[in-house]
Known about the structure:
The protein is mainly beta. It has one helix spanning 52-61; strands at residues 5-11, 16-19, 25-37, 40-51, 67-74, 78-81, 87-101, 107-111. It has a single domain (5-109), classed as CATH 2.40.50.140. A five-stranded mixed barrel has the order 1-3-4-7-5. A hairpin with a 5-residue loop joins strand 7 and strand 8 (107-111). The longest helix is centred in the middle third of the chain and has 10 residues, at 52-61.
Amino acid sequence: MFNKVSLIGYVGRDPESRFTKTGKQVTSFSVATDTSWGKEKKTVWFRVSVWGKLAEICDQYVTKGKLVYVEGTLSEPRVYQSKSGDWRSSLDVTGNTVKFLSKSGEVVSEAPKEESSLEEEIPF
């Protein structure tokens, strides 16, 4: 089995960081991707979480509006009810590569990969 996802999109909000009980940092941010066909345009949002050294770097350099490339694994969609009562789903990605892109899509810089196992560190 293989689970790998690659996203290119704009960061929707500044990242939020937190720490596990063992002190490992996890940073989360949202990424919007667009798909267009004809006059139709659809935006899909992803919640990206990165760990360890990659979390430190993303906490420092990722900002709202920045164009990023994220590579990682996709979790099963989470279904939830919004405050207004609407049913929604969340697409969550555990990122292991983050590249910062220019507006033309060229790689400006790349954050180093986090190679350690992450499952036992999840704080929620």
